[in-house]
Amino acid sequence: MKGYAGKLLRVNLSNGKVSKEEIPEKMQQEFLGGRGFAVKLLWDEVKKVDPLSEKNKIIFCGGPLTGQAIPNAGKMIIASKSPLTGGYGDGNIGTMASIHLRKAGYDVVVVEGKAPEPSYLMIEDDKVSVLKAQGLWGKNTFEAQDILEEKHGKNVGILVIGPGGENLVRYAVVMSQKGRAGGRPGMGAVMGSKNLKAVVIRGTRTIPNHDDNKVKELAKTGYAEIKAKDSYAFWLRQGTMSLVDWCIENACLPTYNFREGVFEHYQGVNGDMLERIKTGRRGCPMCTMQCGNVVNDSNNMPSELDYENVAMLGPNLGMKNLREVALLNRMADELGLDTISLGSCLGFAMEASEKGLISEKLGWGDFQVAQRLITDIVSGRGVGQIISKGVRAAAEVIGGGSHRWAMHVKGLEISAYNCYACPGMALSYGTCPIGATHKDGWIIAWEISTDRLSYGKEKAERLIELQRVRGAIIECLTICRFPFVEMDYGFHKIPEFMEAVTGNRFDWEDSYKTIGDRVYNLMRAYWVRENNQFNRKWDYPPERWFEEGPSQGKLKDMKLDRGKYDQLLSWYYELRGWDQNGVPSQETLENLGLTNVFQEMKR
Ligand code: SF4
Questions:
Q1: Atom of ligand 1 nearest to the CA of 75
Q2: Of ligand 1's atoms, which has the minimum distance to the CA of residue 483?
């Protein structure tokens, strides 16, 4: 189909074999690209393997819109079986590597096996080499980026891991361009387990499309339309950081390991404070809305902030100084750690210390302690070693009922919304296909603006709609969701772009439901096949939200109702065509063209 390179590049690091395969048109039609291609490949090729063994594979996928001259289309998906969760894992990353991947003539790169020594992959159109990572292994992601640019020039796309990935920290990410991160569920650790320090791509071809003039015309009006939005100027000033105040107003800011929903020192870390010290903005390629807010950290080094990393490394740890939060964030970026999981793990350790479950004194808001813990996580020392495997695993080691306030779903740490009084958002965390991320089903704003405390079926219906669009279509096309959800840049633009790019009619109503459900069902089937014990409890949020309410703020003492959550979950399953353990039925799978999936999943 036009718009696709139609090629998959496969590299085996164990034996150096490189091959190029056709991507069947049927797969393009049924799975679109990005997350869709990733789950299809993982389902077919990565079965019942240890995620950190050489049998696992790591997959880099663009979509048909990646690199086309349209707004915010500079992303790719990085996917693998997750060493943090044991299920389907992926993340998107905005990077020049996505554009070079497509210019090099590929939609997908699959890396398998394990290199005998630290290495990196170099892709230059048809020339593919596995090179020694001499002088690179052990370097942080910023240093490695510099070294690789020095060697190969600046006109390349670079994906790199830091010491976090090398040392198999289970929430190590892949970094690019000193600030872009992707692959929360440990995609960096998978690269580390393969001795793969980096992927460097230089593509020199033209990215194919059906009607280039039409694409350019749509792009021109698209960029202009986004910039003309009323909210655009404020977005450029604060980006997602305005959410700190919004979460305070609605008592859902993660504070002291999600124990509270409001933070008494929030004005030290909110959007207004950001504006006072901000020095610039950064973003993904082709972005009109650059949401990376650059500030100088307490060492006077630039660090790129957004709401999630500030909330999780700030209020969630009791940290009240934005420059200090920025330093923790920069450490995470340099070491290649996911800031959300890192903030959750640090908060968990601080609470464990407060409760006397670990002997070390790790005080809330202690900047020195937080810095030391981060280095200990990467070097595998003491408490750092325990929390390097995520809060689910840490709670098993520490015991003492700590699993009740280990803030994760399916092993992935919860991102920055506290849900004592948001059952719909709790369901979103519960059912998201990589574990607890907000990206797929950010229902919380709608929920709070309508009937916050309701457990009505309409919340399950609304959530599924969001997951179809944001979790499936946007991630398959590998474009950024922010123009659509923050600038009200209508989803009806997507069919126009798809038709200009592919030359085929793109029926929005049919596509987002059929393709969206196909991708979601296959991700769910992957969890079920890979985990023999899978049942509905895996779709529950942490015990804390059912057992204890916050001690202050307008939601004081409020908590989720377990029986009502259970009913909401049952409605969700019913609407999805899944059984009461969250397992897709044979009929549901076959109606989506997923033949043989049921039999294999059950086996
Ligand atoms: S809005 Fe932010 S995440 Fe989206 S493309 Fe721009 S910089 Fe990247």
A1: 5
A2: 1
pTM: 0.97
Three-state secondary structure call for residue 161: coil
Q: Count Cβ neighbours within 10 Å for each residue of 292-319 and write b for 16 or more, e otherwise.
A: bbbbbbbeeeebbbbbbbbbbbbbbbbb
pLDDT, position 364: 98
Q: Phi then psi for 139, rounded to 5 degrees?
A: -80, 150
Nearest atom, ligand 1, residue 288 CA: 6
Tell me what pLDDT residue 485 has: 82
Distance from residue 74's CA to the centre of ligand 1 (Å): 9
Task: Give the Å distance between the CA of 93 and the centre of ligand 1.
Answer: 9
How many whole angstroms separate alpha carbon 317 and alpha carbon 322?
12
Question: Of all atoms in ligand 1, which is nearest to the CA of residue 74?
Answer: 5
Residue 518's closest CA among 111, 43, 1?
Answer: 43
Angle 553-558-560 (CA atoms, 0-180°, nearest 5)? 140
pLDDT value for 491:
84
pLDDT at 490: 82
Residue 490, amino acid: G
User: Ligand 1 mean position to 479 CA, how many Å?
Assistant: 9
Identify any residues that bridge with 57 across adjacent strands, giving them in sequence order. 112
- Residue numbers in the chain where pLDDT is lower than 70: none
Ligand 1 pocket test: pick from 93, 482, 484 the residue with the most ligand atoms within 8 Å of its Cβ. 482
At 19 the three-state DSSP class reads strand
Q: Within 6 Å (CB) of ligand 1, which residues are found?
A: 72, 94, 283-284, 287, 289-292, 480, 482
- 283 neighbors 94 (Cβ within 8 angstroms): yes
Minimal-distance CA residue to ligand 1 atom 4: 480
Instruction: Tell me the three state secondary structure of residue 292.
Output: strand
Residue 329 is predicted with a pLDDT of 98
Q: Mutate which of 284, 304, 307, 439 to test ligand 1's pocket (most atoms within 8 Å of Cβ)?
A: 284
Span from the CA of 173 to the centroid of ligand 1 (angstroms): 17
pLDDT value, residue 205: 96
Atom of ligand 1 nearest to the CA of 72: 5
Helix H segments across 88-154? 96-103, 141-152
For residue 12, the cross-strand partners are 112
Amino acid at 80: S
Report which protein residue has its CA nearest ligand 1's atom 2. Answer: 291
- Burial pattern 498-509, b for ≥16 Cβ within 10 A else e, equals bbbbbeeebebe
First to last CA, the chain: 35
- CA separation, residue 15 to residues 111, 131, 272, 548, 589 (Å): 12, 13, 54, 54, 37
Q: Tell me the CA distances in angstroms from 2 to 6, 59, 202, one per residue in order.
A: 9, 22, 22
**Ligand 1 centroid to 487 CA: how many Å?**
12
Closest ligand 1 atom to Cα of 180: 8
DSSP characters over 432-493: -BTBS-SSS---HHHHHHS-TT---HHHHHHHHHHIIIIIIIHHHHT--SHHHHHS---TTH
Interatomic CA distance for residues 111 and 13, integer angstroms: 7
Residue 258 structure tokens: 């999600």
